[in-house]
Design brief:
The structure is a single chain. The protein is α/β, with parallel strands linked by helices and 493 residues long. It folds into three domains: 96 residues, Orthogonal Bundle (Arc Repressor Mutant, subunit A), CATH 1.10.10.10; 236 residues, Type I PLP-dependent aspartate aminotransferase-like (Major domain) (Aspartate Aminotransferase, domain 2, 3-Layer(aba) Sandwich), CATH 3.40.640; 103 residues, Aspartate Aminotransferase, domain 1 (Alpha-Beta Complex). It is built from 16 helices and 14 strands. The strands form three sheets. It has an eight-stranded mixed β-sheet, sandwiched between helices. It has a four-stranded antiparallel β-sheet with strand order 11-12-14-13, covered by helices on one side. It has a two-stranded antiparallel ribbon with strand order 1-2. Helix 1 crosses helix 3 and helix 2 packs across helix 3. The protein is elongated and about 90 Å long. The mean pLDDT is 91. The site of pyridoxal-5'-phosphate has 13 residues, from helix 8.
Length: 493
């Protein structure tokens, strides 16, 4: 007959805390823990319910219920005449159920190659801490206003069934209607609400476009430098990626066609090249569209921050040149907040079903409550007013930052550009941007180095600096800190 352990051999029981409540659950957890750690061996008999109840000061019913629970889980078994014991069936499994702290592997567990690639991506996409000059931190004057708060409360309080069920994977119709109208007016985009698919932001739009448009072995074109979130997606696919340098007119279209005329798709940021900032010239836009028509290729236009142009009106979209060849991506991250995780794509008629299918596969659609809020914010006129307001605040902050850098760090060469939420400042030759970014981090400022956004063939050294989310005083103070950081490197050079 299996022996009964004495209570002191089950240390997990000592962890039961009568002041914390849920005593039955605590007992179940403690016994399960004792079994998994081997304090109660397979086949070992448990103390009787009466003994356990008396010793622990619990009711006998609580102990019986705990035993029943563990019997149902298959951890214990009751045998007539021999009480309750640890289930024999656990015998072969015990080494596997031991908590990992007791079974430390002697060598690292090999993980799939794809898992290693995703881990490497994390380093590139981790957000910067919320300190100047991080990008997209809409606080204070540029945060969503009182109207947003009121609409949010109204909609959240309405308890409408539309907020609780599964919704259309392409997104809420009223939001798609508002976006279509906004894009037609402000971005010269040619679209109907049916062409719009709501996404979790432009990042997801890039991912969906790559999944829908590209197959194994396809050739694909992208800018150099480019948004790391895009390059990581393309590098993860089994495609031939060609990086094409940008110059003062943006993406070098002639070079791209020379390198890979039969590319299936090209990913570009025509309004505001990421990260450098120049727009793609009209002649290059027209050549690119002509190429796409001729070779049956697709243009993915990432229009991530074009609303924020400070000199004149935003540039019209490329999509307006050919709505059947261009997949247009927009986002609410820059003009409202990245935390919303909402954006949109405008897709050609021929691809509507494909993109909605892919969107359904990738998460069944976006949360509907925030979609209702944005739809109301747009249709009631607050969105346009918000953009006008932030454009003016950002425009001032941008001027302040450029002025502060000219004063504190004249060795930096600020790239001429007139839109977006960041500037690019080039470092003097021989100074490594990654080292500066790290030293800046230690000094409490957040900048991104440009070199990791370039292909191995391109050697650029500069800093990407956001100005949107910080007051003029914060920007000036951070520029003074940056001066000190740069000084360490200038002295060392
Ligand atoms: C060029 C570019 N594309 C896409 C994104 C993704 O934006 P989100 O997914 O927040 O809309 C970003 C974010 O910074 C970006 O800079």
């Amino acid at each position: 007959m299996p022996k009964r352990p004495v209570m002191s051999q089950i240390p997990a029981l000592g962890a039961i805390d009568r002041t914390q409540g849920h005593l039955g659950k605590q007992l179940v957890d403690a016994l399960r823990d004792a079994i998994s750690k081997g304090h109660l061996a397979v086949g070992e008999r448990l103390p009787s319910t009466r003994t356990l109840a008396e010793t622990l000061g619990l009711s006998r019913g609580t102990v019986s219920d705990a035993f029943e629970q563990l019997i149902a889980e298959g951890c214990l078994e009751a045998r007539t005449g021999s009480g309750t014991q640890v289930a024999a069936a656990l015998h072969d499994l015990m080494p596997h159920v031991l908590p990992s702290s007791m079974t430390k592997p002697t060598s690292p567990i090999p993980i799939p190659e794809s898992a290693q690639r995703y881990a490497a991506v994390l380093n590139k996409l981790n957000p910067l801490p919320s300190a100047p000059f991080a990008i997209a931190v809409p606080e204070g004057e540029v945060a969503m206003d009182e109207h947003w708060r009121k609409l949010s409360n109204r909609i959240r309080g309405s308890q409408s069934a539309a907020l609780t069920g599964y919704s259309d994977p392409s997104g809420l119709l009223s939001l798609r209607e508002s976006i279509a109208e906004y894009l037609r007016k402000s971005r010269a985009v040619l679209c109907k609400p049916e062409n719009i698919v709501i996404t979790e932001g432009a990042q997801q739009g890039l991912y969906l476009a790559s999944k829908v448009l590209l197959s194994n072995g396809d050739s694909v074109l992208a800018e150099d430098p480019a948004y790391p979130g895009l390059i990581s997606i393309l590098e993860d696919l089994n495609v031939q990626l060609h990086r094409i340098p940008v110059d003062d007119q943006g993406f070098n279209v002639a070079k791209a066609i020379e390198v890979s005329a039969n590319a299936k798709a090209v990913f570009v940021t025509p309004s505001h090249q990421y990260p450098i900032g120049m727009p793609l010239s009209m002649s290059r836009r027209l050549t690119l569209v002509e190429w796409a028509r001729k070779y049956n290729s697709w243009i993915v236009e990432d229009d991530y921050d074009s609303e924020l142009r400070y000199a004149g009106y935003p540039f019209p979209s490329m999509q307006g040149l050919d709505s059947e060849r261009v997949i247009y991506l927009g986002t609410f991250s820059k003009v409202l907040a990245p935390s919303l995780r909402l954006g949109y794509m405008v897709v050609p008629d021929s691809l509507v079903a494909s993109f909605i299918g892919a969107r359904a596969l990738m998460g069944r659609g976006s949360p509907s409550t925030e979609q209702h809020v944005i739809a109301a914010y747009m249709s009631e006129g607050y969105f346009d007013a918000h953009i006008r307001r932030i454009r003016s605040v950002y425009g001032e902050r941008r001027e302040v930052l450029i002025g502060a850098l000219e004063k504190e760090a004249p060795e930096l060469k600020v790239q001429p550009a007139d839109q977006g939420m960041h500037i690019v400042a080039w470092l003097p030759e021989g100074i490594d941007d990654i080292q500066i970014a790290e030293a800046a981090r230690l000094a409490g400022i957040a900048v991104r180095a440009i070199s990791p956004m370039c292909s191995a063939n391109l050697k650029l050294s500069g800093l990407m600096m956001g100005f949107g989310g910080f007051s003029q005083d914060q920007l000036k103070a951070a520029a003074r800190k940056l001066k000190k950081v740069l000084k360490q490197f200038n002295n060392a050079a």
